[in-house]
Amino acid sequence: MNFTFREYGSFILCSLAIIFIAGCTGSEKYYSQAALSRQEAFNRWKNRKALEQQNQTRITGQLSLQDCIKLALTNNKMLQFVLQEKEFARGQELSSYSAILPEVSLSGEYKRLDEVASFDIPSGGTISLGDIDNYSASLRVTQPLFSGGAIPAAINAGRLSVLLADQMVRAALQDVIYLSVRSYYDVLLNQYLYQISADAVRSAQAHLDDVKQKRSGGVASDFDVLRAEVELSNFNADLIQNKNTINIAKTQLLKTMGISQDSSFTLSDVLIYVPMKIEMAEAVEVAYSNRPDLFGQEFNTKLQRELLTTARSKYWPTISGFYDNVWAKPDPHSSTEIKWGHSWYAGVMAAMPIFDGLSREGEIIQQKARLRQSQIDLIDAEETALFELTKALLSIENTEEFVQSQQLNLSRAAEGSRLAEVGYREGINTQVEVIDAESALTKAKSLYYEAIYSHMVAKLDLQKAMGVLSPQLQDDIATKGEEK
Hints:
There is one protein chain. By secondary structure, the chain is α+β, with helices and mostly antiparallel strands. The protein has two domains: 70-101 and 147-317 and 352-466, Up-down Bundle (Outer membrane efflux proteins (OEP)); 102-114 and 127-146 and 318-351, Outer membrane efflux proteins (OEP), CATH 2.20.200. The protein has helices at residues 5-55, 65-75, 77-96, 150-216, 222-257, 280-290, 292-312, 357-425, 431-466, and strands spanning 60-63, 103-112, 118-120, 126-128, 133-146, 264-267, 318-329, 341-351. The chain has a four-stranded antiparallel beta sheet, with no helix packed on it. α7 packs antiparallel against α8 (357-425) and α8 (357-425) packs antiparallel against α9. The longest helix has 69 residues, at 357-425.
């Protein structure tokens, strides 16, 4: 059959059209399937989220700092994750004892032969050497006796792994406490700033009402009213911003505590300035005796020494004692006795690898490098501790000066605002002077509480640097009472 050029072209176009339609249909099908799969995934997420919200702890009412810490230690996911490392290390320690325990094995065997060797005897008859059906069962006990120091090294490594995991848990515990307290302080500070903004709004609103009343009496101008309205709007903007900041800080606090975001609470502690004095030598002594990272590096160095001992042990033979007990048919003592028999034997065996010297030496070089790295890490951890202690002590000193300066500045700003209000009512001061005085007072209040917050955070940083953060914080770090 011959095709013309036009017929051939028509055939190609029809084929392309069919392919295009089929491709579009296939694409729509796959897209629909993918969209349906995404919708199902979203529904699973909603169900899982609803279930998690039902299972999560919810709190209402007042929340103290100590309660915040307790909730975080109970529900924080990061701490729960790290606690599993301790279980993992406990399993490692348990496994390490297998190096010293005997190994017991039991085996059984059945073997059928196609034929059995035999020989004829002169008196007639044939004696078979064995049986077509062969049965055996054996018990073997092997006791390691010597492996060049690898056995005690393995046990010590298991114990050190547990100690190292304990320090990881201690570090995670202190991190959670620090984050909880810091988040609690963040909410406290923003609540104070919000209250300051709210007071400023009320004061600005009262001033605006006063200016409007004076304009009605012909004493104030439209400009004065406009200026007061602008000031009120500015304070309202600060109020809205501080409210949003509080919500974000509360969200972070709830996440740190690991409880439901639907919780509703108010903080019962206050920002309060409590001076703190500690010498650098005392702080260093406490840090070197308590910091989990320093203890962790000490244990890690010891662990690397045990691993190096294990690598070096491969240059020594491994010696084991063994005992075998065999039950077999035919009798293992006589192949002509077609019955069950019993035999045992014991001995000592030694094994010494000969042709893997490069592998052994390479492993020793690697473990030496790891040991040196752990020693360097320990020195670096000590230097980090000194840096953090120095930074925290300097922060405490600076924030104490900051607090004291802002205490005096707050008194001055309050008196200045009072004098401006009195002078304005008596016609001595202008409206701009009143607004400036009110703004200065608002700024001074904010700086005062920010200074107290910074001082409390600096003390918290010092406790973390010394490695003494615990569920029960000292009174000079978290203090309840009246504001100073």
